[in-house]
C-alpha cells in the first residue's frame, strides 16, 4: 500500500485506484460485514480486505492487546458505540480523517476532530412478547410498574458495551436518571448477558418485556417471532456503530476509501438493505424500524460517558447487588 | 504381583540411572524447561506484568486496589463454592458412570458411552438454554411438579446451585473419560483378595477399587476442576441474572471494561485465578502421593458385577433416564430450535422447515470452510499434542523431580485461564515475540494452532500420564533387555499398553479444539474462521436459529463419528484381539 | 465337609478341569500336587468362589456353595487365600494388608484397637516381616511379597485356607519355618487347608492327604506315604518322587526286566495297575551304581548333578533313561562313564510302611 | 569378564547391597543363593543396567558399564533376563514374546521370516509351550507364564543371561528338564549366566560357582562342592544344605561337644573359622537316631516330616534344635519320642571330596 498522501482522496470518487491489503475489525454481524466488504471490493477490486469480526468487547480487547503487544494490526475499526472510539482517541490511537461524506450526516454523530463518524442508527427500545402482552407499553417507566414486576429483562452493562452506553445515557436524562435503574431493580428486572439473550428470553416467553436494540427485535418479528418493538415516548438512546481509522494504519489510502464508501449513499443503502436504520439523511429505514427523524433521541456527551463509564458500572453493580 | 514403583519420590531414587543420564544432560533439562517456559508461561507473564506497571513504573497499586475491594473477595468466595461444588458433582457422576460402565453388566454400554459424551460436546449456551427451558415456568418440570401434591416449585437455575449443577453435568464426562480405563485395568485378583479378606463388594469398592483408580480420578478431577474454573458461558448465563460473579466472568468484565487499568485489574484477578488452579494441581499431587503402580493388565471390559435381571433393568432404566435428561434433552432442544424459523414460534409442523440448514450449508459459505478449518486444526492439534503430551507425560512419569513438576505446572496455567484472557496473552506474546520482530504468526491460522496446542496440551499430558501410572516399569525393562530401545520400545510395548489412556487424552484434545470458542473468537483471522467463531457470530447477530442448526449438525457429526469409532473398536476387539 | 461334585471348568473352548470329584473333610490338610498348567489354581479359584463351575456343584455340609447357576461370593465364606501371584494391594503397607482381614473378615478381631494391633504384630512376626511393616509392596523383594500374601491369608484364622503355592518364592530354611507355622496353625485352629504346590517334597511333608492332578484330571488321592510307596498310575509314580518305570514281564510276584532277562526282581509292593502293564517302578535311590562289568544291566551316564548330600545321575539304559541317586560317599562317576546297575535289596522298605 | 567392584545400592535410606565384589568370567555359570530379601534381585538389576549403583562400579573387560555417574542402558548390552515377576507383556501372545527379542536383540535373527519362525517354534518347544503359542499371558497358569519369561530371555542366545528365580513356579520334573536345557544352552553358547535361586539344591546342581548372599553382603563364593563341604561361615553352613552347628571345644583335631562331653568327634574337614568359634558343623544325614538309652546324647523329637525317600526329624537337644535326616528304612520315631543321637562315622565323605 502507498502511504504518501492523506489528502488526495477528497477528490473524485472515493478511493479510486487504491490497492493493497486492509485489516477491517468490526463487531457487525458476519454476513453484514462481508456484504459491506464485497460491495466495497466491487468498486475497488485491488484492495484485499480481511475481516476480523467478533463482539465489540472482544474486538476492543484485541486492539488493546495488540497495542500492548507493540503493533496494532487493524486499519479500520467499526464497533458499536462512540464511547469506545473516545477511549481510543484519548490514547491517540485514531487517525484524524474527516471524510467528505460526513457532510451529509447529522453532525452530532461525527467526531468534531474527525477521528470517527457514525455509520448507522441503532436505537434501544422495548421488546414485548405479543402472546402474553396485549397492551403495549409506551414508556420506559412501564418497566418499573407493578404489572411488569419480574417480567422484564435487560442486557448487562458489565458485559455489553452497548448496554453500558445506554446506562450512561439514560442515567443522564432528567426523566429517568439513576432512580429509573433503582426502580428497575425494585421491580425485579432480570439482568442477562446481552441483546441476543434478551431476544431469546422474550421471544420464547420466558419474560414478557425487554430492553433491546431495535434491529434485532424488528428482524425477529419479520422472521415470525411473536414479538413487537416499541420506541418509548421519552426517547431512545442511540448507538451509531462508528467507523474510524487506526493511527498506525499501513494503508491509509485504502482505509480512507473504505470509510468513504461506508458513509456514501451506496454504503448507506446497503446498511438499510441489511436491516439497519441508515445514518445518512434521506435514505429510508428498513421495514419495522424508524428513521432518524421519526425518533426522539436521548443523548449524552461521549467524552463524559467515557470518563464516567467505570463509575457508572460500579454504581450499577451496587444497585443490582454485585 | 504388584510392581516395583511408588509414584513419586521413591521412583526417583530407584530410577537413579535415568536421572544420572539426565545429570549429565542437565543442560537439556534446563533447555526443555526454558522452551516450556517460553511457550506456556511467558505469555501469561506478559499479562501479569501489566498488573505491576502503571505508566511505566512498577507498582503494587493494582494489587492493593483489587485486593481491598470486597467485590473481589466475594467473587473469590463464589468461585470457590461454584468450582468446588461442580467439581465434586462432576467427580461423583464421573466416577459413578465409569464404574458402572467398567464393572457392571449392563446392556447397551457402547450407546451409553456416546451419550455420556454429549453434554461435553454440546455448546454450553445450548445446554444452559435447554436446562433453563426445562425448568422454566412453562417447562416440563413445573408441569410435572404441579401434578404432585404440595407447593413444589421447580428449582431456580439462576442460582449458585444452578451453576454448580450445569457445570457438573457438562464436565463429568471428563472424569468419566479419564477414569473408565483405569477401572478396567484394575487386576481382578486384587478384588478377589479383598473378598477373601471378608470385604463386601461395597467395602472393596471404597478400600481397594477406588484407591486403585485414583490416578484416573485425580487427573479427571483436575481437568474438570480447571474446566469449571475457566468456564465462562454457564456462570455468565446463569449468574448474571442472579448477580453471581465468579472469577472468569469478573475477569471478562474487567477486560471489556475499557479504562486504562482494565487489563491490569484483569491481570491481578488472573493471578488469583491462577493461584486457585495451582492449588488444585497441588491438591491432586497430594492425592496421588500414595498411589502405587499395579501389575500391568490388559484392559478388561468384561463385567465384574452381575446383577439380577430385575436389578439390571432398574439400573439401566435409571441410567437412561439420567442420560436422556442430561444429554438428549439439550440435543432435542437444539434440534427443535434449529427447525423453527424464529424464537418463540410454536413448535408446530407448519412452522418447521430446513430453512436454517439450507442457509447455513448452502447459502452461507463460512460454515463449511469453518468446519474444514476446525477439523484440520483439531486434527493437527491432536497429533502434535499426542506426541508432545505423551513425551511430556513420560518424562513426568520417569523423572518426577522438580523440573518435570514445574513443567507440568506451567502447562496447566494456559488451560486454567479463561479463554479470553489466554487469547490476550497469546496476542501479547506472538504479535511481536521480540519487540520489533513480527514473525507473521499472529493474524494467520498458526496463532490458532499454537494457541490450541498451548492450551490443550495439558489434557494430553494428563491422559497419557494416567496411562503411564498403569504401567509397571518391568514392562519397559523387559523390552530393553530384549534389545528394544527408542521407537521400537514405544511402538511395540509402551504405546499398545498406553493406548486407551492416550486415546482418551487425544479424543479430549480433538473435541476441545473442534468446538473451541473463546480463544478463537479473539485470534481467528480472515480465512481461518473456526466452528466456534461462526456459531458465536450467529449468536451475536441474533441468528440463534442458524447457530443451533450448525451446532446440531456438528453434534450429530460427532455422534456419528463416535458411533463409527466404537464400531471399529468392536471389530478390532473381535478380529484382532480375538476377544471372547 | 466340602464336596466337589463332578466339577468341570472351561476357559472358552479349553477345558481346564474335567469332572473333578473331591472331598475336603473338616480340619483336613490337603495338598494338591501337579505339573504346571494342570488346573491347580483353577480348582482353588472354584473353591474360593471367584468363578462358577462350567458343570457340577460344590457344596458344604449339604448346602450348595456353587453351581452353574449361583455362586456364593467369597466374602460370605469363611476363607483365606494365598494367591499364586500374591495379589497385593499396591496402595497399602504390609501392616495394612494384615489389618484388613482382621477388620473385615467373618473372623475379625472384635476386641478393639490394642488387641488388633497385637494380632497384626504377631502375624507379621510369624512371617518375619515385623521390620517391614510400613513398607509398600513395591518396596519388597519377591519372597517378602509372598510372605505378605501368606500373612494376610492366615491372619483371620479362616475356616478354610486356600493356598496357591504359598512358599514357592522362599528359601528352604524359611520355607521349612513357614511350613511348620502353617502346620501349627492347622493344629490350633482345626481349619481345613487346601495347599497347592508343585513341590512333591512339600506335599509329602505337610499334608494329611495328597491330590495329584494332571491335565485337568485327578490321578490319585491318597495319604503321602501311600502315594509314594503305592502309586497307582505311571504319572503318579514318576511325578511324586522321581520313579524309573522299568519294563519287563510279571510272573506272579516275580519280575523279569526286559533289559536284563537273566535277573529276577521280587515284588516289593507294586500296585496292580503296574503289574498288568508290565512295569516295575523303581525309585532313584533303589538303584545302585557300580563300575561296569560284563554281566548285569549296563548303562551310560549322560548327566551328573551334585546335590550336596547325594549325587543324581541320569543314565541311559538301552532305550530308557533312568534317574539314579547315589550317596556322595559312594564311588563317583562322570558323564560318559559306562556303569553297571543293580537293584538294592531292601525288602523292608515299601512293604512294611504301607501296612503302617 | 564382568567385574562388580565394591558396589552398594540403597533404596532410600535402606541399604540393599553393601560393597559387593564379584567377578563373572566369560562363559561362567554363577548361581546366586540367599535367603529372601538378601539382595539377589537387586544385584541382578544392577547387572542388567536398570539402575545405577549408589557406590562402586561394574565394568566389563575394562570398560565401565555402570557407575554412579553413568549407566550403559540394557538395550545396548547383549543380555537376556528372566524377571522374578515374569514381566510379561499383557498385549502379546506367547509366540510374540519370543519373537520380540528375536527381532530386536543385538543377536537377532537376520536370516528372514522362515528362519525366525523356526527359531520361535524351537524355543517354544524347548519350554513346552508350543501348544499355547497363541495364548495371552492372562490365559496362562503361573508356571506357564514363567516359562514364557524364560523362553523370551533365552531365545536370542544372549552373551549374558540373567535369571531371577526362573524355575520357582515349576514342578520338579519340569524344573529338571529346564535346568538341563539351560545347561545345554550354556555349553553350546558359552554365555555367562547369573542364576538367582533360593533353592540350594538347584544352585548346587547347576552352577560352576555359587555366590551365597546374606543381608546385602556376599558370604562366600565357591564351587558347589567346596561350598557344601567346607562352608566358611555359620550362615553358609546352615543355609546351604541344612547344617547343625554343634557347640563344643576343639582340641587340635578333636572335638568335644558340650552336650555330651564323654564323646570325642574327629575332624572330618571342618573350616578353621568354625574351629576358632568352637563349632562342629554336622549335616542332617551325618547324625544317626536310635532308641534312647542312658548314655550318649539324648533329645526329644519335636517334629517329623515325611519326604518319601527320607524322614526329616527335628530334635531338641538341650538348648539346641537339630535337624536329622534318616532313611525311610530306619526305625521310625514320632513327635515326643526321646531318642539317642550319635554321629555316623563316615571318615571318607568330606575329606576325600574336597581333595577331588
Ligand atoms: N524399592 C524398594 N524400596 C525399599 N526397599 C527395597 C526396594 N526394593 C527392594 N527393597 C529391599 O531390598 C532388599 C533386597 O531386595 P531384593 O529384591 O534384591 O531381594 P531378593 O534377594 O531378590 O529377595 P527374594 O528372594 O525375596 O526375591 C529387600 O529387603 C527389600 O525389602
Ligand atoms: N483365562 C484363561 N483362558 C484360557 N486358558 C486358561 C485361562 N486360565 C488358565 N488357563 C489354562 O488352564 C490350565 C490350568 O490353569 P491353572 O492356572 O489352573 O494351572 P495350575 O495348575 O495352577 O498351573 P501352575 O502350576 O503353572 O500355576 C492351564 O493350561 C492354563 O493355560
Ligand atoms: Mg497355578
Ligand atoms: Mg528377588
TrEMBL record, chain B:
Residues 76-284, 371-565 form the ABC transmembrane type-1 domain. It is a multi-pass membrane protein. It is found in: Cell inner membrane; Cell membrane. The chain crosses the membrane at residues 30-52, 80-102, 114-137, 157-183, 204-226, 266-288, 317-345, 377-397, 409-429, 441-458, 493-514, 549-572. Pfam families: BPD_transp_1 (PF00528). Keywords: Cell inner membrane, Cell membrane, Membrane, Transmembrane, Transmembrane helix, Transport. Belongs to the binding-protein-dependent transport system permease family. This is ABC transporter permease. The lineage of its organism: Bacteria, Bacillati, Bacillota, Bacilli, Bacillales.
Automatic annotation (TrEMBL), chains C, D:
PROSITE patterns: ABC_TRANSPORTER_1, ABC_TRANSPORTER_2. The keyword Zinc does not apply. Keywords: ATP-binding, Nucleotide-binding, Transport. Residues 2-240 form the ABC transporter domain. It comes from the Bacteria. InterPro entries: AAA+_ATPase, ABC_SmlMolc_Importer, ABC_transporter-like_ATP-bd, ABC_transporter-like_CS, Mo/tungstate-bd_C_term_dom, P-loop_NTPase, Transp-assoc_OB_typ2. Pfam families: ABC_tran (PF00005), TOBE_2 (PF08402). PANTHER family: SPERMIDINE/PUTRESCINE IMPORT ATP-BINDING PROTEIN POTA, SPERMIDINE_PUTRESCINE IMPORT ATP-BINDING PROTEIN POTA. This is Transporter. The lineage of its organism: Bacteria, Bacillati, Bacillota, Bacilli, Bacillales.
